[in-house]
Design goal:
Largest sheet: 2 strands, antiparallel
CATH class of the largest domain: Mainly Alpha
Strand content: under 5%
CATH topology of the largest domain: Serine Threonine Protein Phosphatase 5, Tetratricopeptide repeat
Number of helices: 10
Structural class: mainly alpha
Strand order of the largest sheet: 1-2
Amino acid sequence: MAALIKGAATGVHDAVHKLLNHGSALIKDARAGDNDAIQKLLNQGAHVDERSDGTTALLAAAKAGKAETVKFLLSKGANVEARDDDSYTIIKLALDNGHKPIAEWIVETYPKLIVTDPRLPKGKTWITEQFELMSNNVKDNASKPDPKVLERIISGELGPIEGRSVSHVYWEHILLRYVGDIPKDIERNYSKSLILSLVGTFERILKGHDGTLPPSPASGVRQNY
């Protein structure tokens, strides 16, 4: 019985090790643009969307500018909507690394894909439409997002971190999440020195907090969230 259990454990370990090796090898071959090696791994049981090093083979190929490998992996069923561990899309990874033709090919080939990156026309249109929807849904004019925040998101020129208004911080945070740049949002909008608006007309704010809001101007009652 002990030998049987040991054998089973060894088998599970070997299977896990094989899967991990497959994922690592897929990423390596995708970055190198080696389609033959990728096919061999797939024949051996590797899954086209296996993850390693925080990414998938498709995302790694796009980031490395291997257009033919991107097409090859997609033909094998790779998920075009996959994101890496930073939540970056294939579009963002291609554009960030100077491979605009790959990003444009993806957009053309997958017309139903939601494109959030404003560096491409479809992404610019999308984020502009989302901004207008958000603005229209805010009934208090004093709380509406400043169009200049949208302009900066689209241009990529966000400006200095310090010296921004509470409203600017809040809406930039929202828009960066919409376009899918979580690391940039964290870098700019999660500093302890910043004041983060929570509600409406920014009467109540959170600063150096312990989870407790200051008294409401209307009631004088402290509220916990």
